[in-house]
Amino acid sequence: MEKLTYEKPYIKKLHAGVMNKFGTRTGIQPVKQIDGVSVKKLIEGYGSPVFVLSEKQIRKNYRSAYRAFSTRYPKVQFAWSYKTNYLNAVCQIFHQEGSWAEVVSGSEYQKALGNGVPGNKIIFNGPGKSKEELKIAVDNNSLIHIDHFEELNQLLTLSKELVNKPRVAIRVNMDTGVYPSWDRFGFNYENNEAWTALEKIVTSGKLQLVGLHCHIGTYMLSTAAYGIAANTLCDLAMRCNTLLNHKIEYLDMGGGFPSTNTLKGAYLPGADTVPTVDDFAEIITSTLLNFGFAQEDLPLLILESGRVLIDDAGYLLGTVIANKRLNNGKRATIMDFGVNILFTSFWYEHQISPAQDFNPHNENMIIYGPLCMNIDVIRESINLPLLNTGDHVVVHKVGAYNMTQWMQFITLRPAVVLIDEQQRTHLIRTNETLHYTEEPEVMPAHLRPSK
Ligand SMILES: *Cc1c(COP(=O)(O)O)cnc(C)c1O
User: Fold this and answer.
1) Which of 81, 84, 143, 274 has most ligand 1 atoms within 8 Å of CB, for mutation?
2) Hey, what domains does the chain have and what are their CATH numbers?
3) In testing the pocket of ligand 1, which one of 102, 274, 303 has its CB within 8 Å of the most ligand atoms?
4) CA–CA separation, 202 vs 150, rounded Å?
5) Atom of ligand 1 nearest to the CA of 104
6) Residues 394, 218, 77, 214, Cα dihedral to 10°
7) d(CA 230, CA 297)
8) Which residues line ligand 1 at a C-beta cut-off of 6 Å?
9) Cα 73 to averaged position of ligand 1 atoms, centre (Å)
10) How far apart are CA 269 and CA 118, in angstroms?
């Protein structure tokens, strides 16, 4: 038998914590493999920490979301939100499944082209498009979702010198009953700016108004808000038809559906409380179907879901560096991954599982990252078995926004591995090197180290 590690005894006042409905047991299970691939082998092969993505789970998420909408509504199209995770391998999985691309910057736009997405299947969102970027988008017949009057005027000016008639939509914001409302993006419905913009586009004759767009928030817990948003877009589309004699081809409801992660401070786990994609699909499609469009005039319904399609397909594997006892008696465990690569730890209580068998004693502890910065806290409070230096852990549901919002700060960014449906592993982004981070730097001659 392996020798047990010595754990120094200590005395701690017991606090009778709140019981949850399962009592005080934590029910923690070791997670030794992902999609049949050993966690230990993944770390041996690709280093620690390492991000792992499950192709099987991504495809499963996409298909079930598509099914939720397409079984309820005749014309449905998804567009992958690049900023949620724009590793090209990830984007290609969504494109293979039939997704268009939804981009919010010139560089994301170029990425979509590089991934072979036809221009007319790229949706260009966001408040910061440059004149040059708009020109390229018009030349490629992309769908430009206008954010403000300056952009609208710029497109009207550009339309004089360009061959293609720009295909545009406007982004609309409205009071959905969820606050703070995202009224900084697009044209407001209640103060009539949305209608003014529509009228200006249609009567100009220079732009082709093809759609209406909204994206009302992210990690939205209210299905009713989507009912209000869908109703608002339908109302504008219908008025466009009756008052301006112009048919709107599509309504784009944006993204924002929550993943099953648990928000910080939430009383119950996200998996038990968030509405499902079916719940959102039901209210959106029933609003569209019941609004009064003639069957042949039903607009195409576009969804730009990000988070819900990829969060639970992503894992972060890491290793325990050390343990310590804080002044207040609390146990602290230091991991080899910090908030610089796990941005979402600022607002999710990520589930962390040990990756090997453990002894049954567990304790409430704080999980720190390796950064020499006070903010580097992965979990302020989590019940886990005692982990030893060198033990591995699996952080769950990290597929959305981490591999795009991660920062090269103090430590270099780790490798990303994709496990395909045949349980083969593929390196889809190598770990960063010092050379990579220093490459864009330029040293003035007078500061060069003398040889
Ligand atoms: C970020 C974003 C999305 C994706 O949002 P999720 O909350 O990840 O679903 C969709 N559309 C627009 C315009 C966005 O900015």
Assistant:
1) 81
2) 27-33+312-430 (2.40.37.10), 125-305 (3.20.20.10)
3) 102
4) 17
5) 15
6) -170
7) 16
8) 81, 83-84, 102, 104, 125, 215, 218, 254-257, 304-307, 400
9) 21
10) 40
Distance CA 246, CA 238 (A): 9
In whole angstroms, what is the distance from residue 436 CA to residue 433 CA?
Answer: 5
Closest ligand 1 atom to Cα of 307: 8
pLDDT in tens, the chain (451 residues): 677 777 777 776 554 445 554 445 557 899 999 999 999 999 999 999 999 999 999 999 999 999 999 999 999 999 999 999 999 999 999 999 999 999 999 999 999 999 999 999 999 999 999 999 999 999 999 999 999 999 999 999 999 999 999 999 999 999 999 999 999 999 999 999 999 999 999 999 999 999 999 999 999 999 999 999 999 999 999 999 999 999 999 999 999 999 999 999 888 899 999 999 999 999 999 999 999 999 999 999 999 999 999 999 999 999 999 999 999 999 999 999 999 999 999 999 999 999 999 988 889 999 999 999 999 999 999 999 999 999 999 999 999 999 999 999 999 999 999 999 999 999 999 999 999 999 999 999 999 998 7
Residue type, 5: T
The residue whose C-alpha atom lies closest to atom 10 belonging to ligand 1 is 255
Which atom from ligand 1 is nearest to the alpha carbon of 258?
A: 7
- Please say whether the beta carbons of 315 and 398 come within 8 A: yes
Residue type for position 275: P
Angstrom distance (rounded) from CA 434 to CA 412: 8
Task: Tell me the two tokens of residue 212.
Answer: 């209406």
Ligand 1, closest atom to CA 145? 13
